[in-house]
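Problem 3 from the worked examples.
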Amino acid sequence: MDSTALLLAATLSAGTVLAIASLGLLINEKAGIVNLGAEGMMLCAAIAGFATVIHTGNTWLGFAAGMAAGAFLAAIFGGLVIWLNTNQYATGLALTLFGTGFSAFAGIKYVQEKLPEQTQYPIPYLADIPFFGPALFRQHPMVYVAMALTGGLIWFLYRTRAGLVLRSVGESPESAHALGYPVRRIRLAAVMAGGALCGLAGAYVSLVYTPLWVEGMIAGKGWIALALTTFATWRPARVLLGAYLFGGVTMLQFHLQGLGVNVPSQLLSMLPYLATIVVLVLISRNPLWIRVNMPSSIGKPFYPGA
């Protein structure tokens, strides 16, 4: 029972990384922008957050630095694809390549650094409940922030005028422009908000999930987050559930190794990426279902003068 509770707790922690990043990418895609630079933004945010905590000792400043780094890189990406109409896919890939290289260069002197001892955040009384306490109520606050972000994004997209405008920009930017909405500025705001969330996820990796800095430590989580938005058919609640599913698959490898299951570690390490491929293959068998849920203008440039 204790091992199951620990597995559930680890699943929530691992899923939080994917959930926060995927929610950010979902905001981008709801506005019609595809950002393949999530991996690079998360890496830069991871080193930005880690370096900030090393120099200040304040974890929350580290999260803020990660969000700022993600938003800054997203703003550059947005300027290129929204105003200069560069190809979204090529620009996103370039951002990932840049982020991978820059984070490795900037993080050289931080490889051996150690963070201050982490503060524990058990919820009084609830943390002492057998099984549920260790599994659910001794998590880092960011785990609960991811859940709150999901609820907040559902409310924003489907219960507010601003959310309706954002979705209209993703469905038909020409119509939104004809009604007088500043399509380009709305898209830039969405891209920067998404970048900030990707940055928050990257900082969470280096500050909480694996509290250290190692080159390439995001290890494909940005790509899984991209796949997760499609897997969830651009619905925030499904994003959260899918993130926990992938988080569970990720942590299952360590759980099985701890139980002494005689399976090669390389095969277990493949599980999260294999699950991603399987899910994408299953989804691609029904392209109509994807088209019905996908924002109509996703990945398409917008020319206001046309």
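Problem 4, a separate protein:
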Amino acid sequence: MIQSKLKTIFLALGATLIAISMIILPVETFDASKRGLTIWWGTVFPSLFPFFVISELLIGFGVVKFIGVILEPLMRPLFRVPGVGGFAWAMGMASGNPAGAKITARLREEKQISKIEAERLVSFTNYSSPLFIFVAVSVGFFHNKGLGILFAIAHYLGNILVGLIMRFYGYSKKEKLEVKNSKFRVWEAIRALHRTRIEDKRPIGKLLGDAVVSSIHTLLMIGGFIILFSVINRLFFHLQITALLASVIKEFFAILHFSNQLTIPFISGLFEITIGSDLISRVKESTLLQQSILTSFILGFGGFSIQAQVASILAQTDIRFKPFFIARILHGLFAAIITLLMWDPIFGKQYESNEFPISLPVFLQNSHSFLDKLYQWGIEFGPIITICSLLLYIFIYSRRYVYKK
């Protein structure tokens, strides 16, 4: 009871402090809000919206059930989740945070996975997309193409390790791990696909409308969290709270022989990975290895902004947030350790300084060019996609409102 009251007081004081800070620092609050809105408006919405819509359609049409039957022999022994988890795994990687949580919550609502399986699945299906790692972080912030390879290896391999560890979460001897070997698994998957589509009696128009409405509802929530944490991050910096937290971490960094100048950027990255990665890349008093290790950690940790988005999505189901939070800490640690271990094999000692950017292999240069053009295209046309999508949402919602009346 006392603990609950202390929590209430702490939350009330925190909210009051933020409100007063917004009044005292209106210019900083406005600038931070505008920056968060720009990120959501131009990048997050247009990049996630198509994936959210298509994932809803694939679930409704039974394609996810089809994939689940095919991938059952892989996902069940490795991660102790049904084969449909492979869909969340792949889509989460392709579209980035927090798509994995969105799809996992949807699978749980459809009763395709159990509560324990959902908590295992969500722990390793939320990570940064290759577009963000290669273009935004390695090229945009560090101006070093080769770092993208290192970040990607550390990030995705670390995530697989998290999945392998979380397979023991909620383990029960009653849980069946045997997967029947069937020569006709494809036909079994086709039957499951057809059965799922027949059971969902919504017409295609209704299914598409539901997919658009559900996706935009989630993206509006994500946008709110991005703006909120952008403001909180800026206010904490001006209120010297970030500096206070950095003074604590400074002692730990001293043990690791990391530059003290990395403490404040690291704290910022714990709140928002985009801001943190950018600030870490600007610290000239540190080595590139130190910057890479910390960047890999915050990419794996995800930042409180993304974690709040996931918590909001999971709150609509019976999936608990605590396993996901523990998995994020593990992911950050694994990614940081892998970055350290892979540094010499990939870069060698000659790249210990920022002055020696590494070049990508020939077979990856074209892919980087494509990603770069795709990123620039998103910046240019992202706001237009956002506006058109919101207008479509208003149209569908208004038609349904009139129909109900």
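Solution to problem 4. The chain has one domain: 25-170+179-404. The chain has a mean pLDDT of 81.
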